[in-house]
């Protein structure tokens, strides 16, 4: 057995560094993103893949309170048979078990809880290859991306949440003294004790595309602030979170704690267990990543809980001018192609003035820009092997349906085509579709087309682009925005429009940084300033709603009772 | 003109000290609570009273957007004619003016806003005598209490909110650089800018009893985080907030800012302007102190806003044993009498075992405890002058009605009597009523009897008291709780019960600290852990919902575009 305090001592230096990194916000990472042997060891890749393979077609080894039978709902976008069976728990049993586990967890205190969380993350990192395969075959992310975004970066986001939660929940010291001078008498003296108390049972509802990256912040923020967490994965992406829960339970047990502080809640599609759990009176925190429809429903109906959502919106690029046209096109093509645009951060709407744009390669009309972007896509995705590595696979039929619908819409300038992957011939892989439409065609582009669908939208001018940007993001939300301009004036106007619209802004990205990526410890991901989210990873609002600080006070011995 | 940056420089040292004090949580105060000449100057008292008298029967000098006529709603519990007329603004105009004022305020940044806020507080403090009279004659607080709680302590709570808001909104640096090493190449380098953006128009709904103390935290927290604030006083206590708004507008104007960042919204009782404003789509923050009924309504209906409430509950004292019986009785009698129990923190329910309690004055049965408490009240309030100075006056008819109802209920052990004040013979002053009832009589004591009404409730044992405490506070909420016991075991059990019930706890207060008082920079006031409130003054949750941090990022010159 290792006590929570011992885990804290083990990871104290890391936690201190993480807290400092979240304050400084320069580049910092705790978990290497390179899957190379020099980093993770000679056998790590093979061992991880073996561990993943061993899970296929079997009963996933995990205990669930009130288990009644098993379910198996996952399907690999790469065509590999998964057939993993998970025990299903009854919502009432899951909640009862979470509540029963909480008092002892509360008594552990913030540092001990952060120590346990850091140990969970250490063991998650130790199984990063296994997890990468799990992410790849549930989300359709290509392996390297699954390793990075689903592995190292998700772990960094998890550690960031641990750090911010630990910092915020310890801002008021656990014990203090209060000494108030009294005129002509001994001072009044009190001892004061501050105790962090979790809000209540926490529910984390995972998504199909980024189960770990989007799931870890809420999971770890809730844990560290003293709550038990029920993890409800998307039926299409259970395994990455099942492994996570398994690891958490293993560490909790080793720390002498109740493993039911973290439980797995699986369901058949349509069971509606998320809604049942989220509206239960004892569930006091809900984290959700997914559709605007269900996210808005949760915000409206999970009234007994604080609800942190990350939904969807109209990610927008304002194209005005550039002094690196090639770099811009290469950057944009990659942003559209990465994981087939199945990121909540992928640009959808490109606003381009009808009069065209000025570039270092000369003036380009809106049509020419569209053609050049299409060429850049073809160049990036010309080699099937490289294309597969960038695009990953299409995660589910919903995306395919939208892709087909977009392809049948007038204005296609880059049609989507199928790509064959050597390693996984059954994989469903498609290149992005790009359409050219007019700013007047609001109906089309103010809808969110999650997946590899984007629009080159012709506006009257960059000023008009900024207006469209401001209005559409205000109304429909966005997780990302970017602008390309050589004019300081336009850049300033774009920054102002982004503040108005309430969205983070990237300017002139032409190199190795992409608008769809945010870095833990430096970039906030999402913001409640527009309708696309109520969560921002990871600011103090994201953690401070998860706990209360309760105080007690008493006279210190030696005080004169005036 | 003095710029916000200049105000920040002027008050920087104070703000730094306040931030540190909020972190250390020892005794600290910025505004002296003593009305003595040696502190505030020879003429301050007379000048302040003169300024207050000059306002009576006149049009209060303040501009209000969209003003249409005036209203006059206040009535002094001390019987002095007030007849002050305030201009009434239309809700739509107030909101439009607030919105129009916001963009420039946002651009000022957190430090400049904190500087302006600190200057507002400085000028409020300079008018502390005038404000004390205003508080006295609207709330019924006796003068010294009005000076302290309504003056210095309210200002301290305001500064605390400024400090916590400034600290939380600057945790993410305004500008940073991000440098990520690249294998075999120049690092990726980005500049990042973080901008604090207010959530939107803020509405502060004041209460009748503590317009400044309960109002300042929300007002200043919203201001510093970049929001315009509409101040809607209780119709019975307009003047203290009207003076506050007047001062705020004066400082804002002097800083070259739009005074409509802080506006006054008065109404006739029953106009329902608070509900209209609170549910307007552009009002995004609501602060409320008052009845559970309207507070719960706001939480349920002001869905577009983040809602911070301080409502009411069952403040409970668990009496088990004491080694300072006299001190305990004196302390409790004062707690019940201070401002006639018209504090949201005044104890209502005393849980006493039927078997009696052990004290340094011997065993006392529950009946004897009730009789001794009554005697202690009589002793404290025996001298009319001293009684008036402690009790203050009854704030409104609602309190009188409950007092009469309680007096007509079986079990009265200390009847309420009228007290005559020499200085204000018209004042409505009453001593507290105390009733003795059984724990089975839940219907009576689980109702909140705001005012000088309390119950000695006989339980089976202290364990039973703790159960009643835990269950009633969990269900009905509480702002305070206290316990008297000489047993470490009972104290530990009481602490645990308080954590379970979600309420702050005072232990064995027998001296000059009272359960109804909380000190800024040290004690949290209220907690969202039970139904009595969603606000806690001032933790990070109280400020972090009032703003968003939006980021922009761009490549730093010299980067290789990989």
Automatic annotation (TrEMBL), chains A, B:
Keyword set, alphabetical order: NAD, Oxidoreductase
Is the keyword Methyltransferase in the record? no
* Phosphoprotein found in the keyword field: no
Q: Which GO terms describe its biological process?
A: L-proline catabolic process to L-glutamate
* Domain Aldehyde dehydrogenase: from-to ranges: 94-496
Recorded GO molecular functions are: L-glutamate gamma-semialdehyde dehydrogenase activity
Q: Which GO terms describe its cellular component?
A: cytoplasmic side of plasma membrane
Q: What name appears for this protein in its UniProt entry?
A: Retinal dehydrogenase 1
């Amino acid at each position: 057995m290792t006590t929570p305090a011992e885990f804290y001592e083990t990871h104290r230096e890391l936690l201190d560094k993480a807290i400092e990194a979240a304050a400084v916000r320069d580049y910092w990472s705790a978990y290497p993103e390179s899957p190379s042997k020099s980093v993770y060891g000679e056998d790590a890749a093979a061992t991880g893949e073996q561990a993943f393979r061993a899970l296929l077609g079997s009963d996933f080894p995990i205990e669930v309170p009130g288990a009644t039978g098993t379910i198996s709902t996952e399907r690999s976008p790469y065509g590999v048979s998964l057939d993993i069976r998970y025990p299903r728990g009854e919502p009432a049993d899951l909640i009862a078990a979470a509540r029963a586990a909480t008092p002892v967890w509360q008594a552990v205190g913030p540092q001990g809880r952060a120590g346990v969380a850091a140990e969970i993350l250490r063991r998650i990192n130790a199984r990063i290859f296994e997890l990468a395969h799990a992410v790849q075959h549930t989300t359709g992310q290509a392996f390297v991306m699954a390793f990075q975004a689903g592995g190292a970066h998700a772990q960094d986001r998890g550690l960031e949440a641990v750090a911010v939660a630990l910092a915020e929940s310890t801002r008021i010291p656990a014990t203090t003294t209060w000494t108030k001078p009294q005129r002509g008498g001994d001072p009044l003296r009190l001892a004061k004790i501050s105790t962090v108390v979790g809000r209540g049972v926490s529910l984390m509802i995972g998504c199909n595309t980024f189960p770990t990256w989007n799931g870890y912040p809420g999971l770890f923020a809730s844990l560290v602030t003293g709550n038990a967490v029920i993890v409800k994965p998307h039926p299409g992406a259970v395994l990455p979170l099942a492994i996570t829960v398994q690891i958490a339970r293993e560490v909790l047990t080793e720390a002498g704690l109740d493993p039911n502080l973290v439980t797995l809640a699986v369901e058949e599609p349509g069971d509606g267990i998320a809604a049942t759990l989220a509206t239960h009176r004892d569930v006091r925190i809900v984290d959700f990543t997914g559709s605007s429809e269900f996210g808005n429903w949760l915000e409206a109906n999970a009234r007994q809980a604080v609800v942190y959502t990350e939904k969807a919106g109209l990610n927008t690029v304002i194209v005005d001018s550039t002094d690196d046209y090639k770099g811009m096109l290469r950057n944009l093509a990659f942003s559209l192609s990465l994981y087939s645009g199945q990121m909540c951060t992928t640009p959808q709407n490109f606003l381009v003035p009808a009069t065209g744009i000025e570039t270092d390669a000369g003036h380009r009309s809106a049509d020419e820009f569209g053609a050049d972007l299409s060429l850049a896509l073809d160049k990036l995705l010309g080699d099937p092997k490289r294309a597969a590595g960038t695009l990953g696979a299409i995660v589910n039929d919903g995306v395919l349906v939208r892709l087909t619908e977009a392809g049948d819409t007038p204005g296609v300038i880059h049609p989507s085509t199928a790509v064959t992957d050597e390693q996984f011939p059954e994989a469903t892989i498609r290149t992005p579709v790009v359409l050219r439409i007019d700013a007047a065609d609001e109906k089309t582009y103010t809808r969110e087309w999650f997946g590899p669908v984007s629009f080159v939208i012709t506006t009257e001018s960059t000023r008009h682009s900024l207006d469209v940007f401001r209005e559409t993001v205000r109304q429909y939300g966005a997780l990302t925005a970017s602008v390309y301009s050589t004019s300081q004036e336009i850049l300033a106007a774009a920054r102002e429009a982004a503040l108005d619209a309430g969205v983070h802004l990237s300017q002139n990205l032409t190199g190795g940084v992409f608008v769809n990526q945010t870095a833990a410890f430096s970039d906030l991901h999402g913001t409640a300033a527009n309708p696309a989210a109520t969560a921002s990873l990871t600011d103090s609002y994201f953690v401070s709603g998860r706990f209360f600080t309760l105080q007690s006070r008493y006279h210190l011995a030696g005080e004169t009772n005036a």
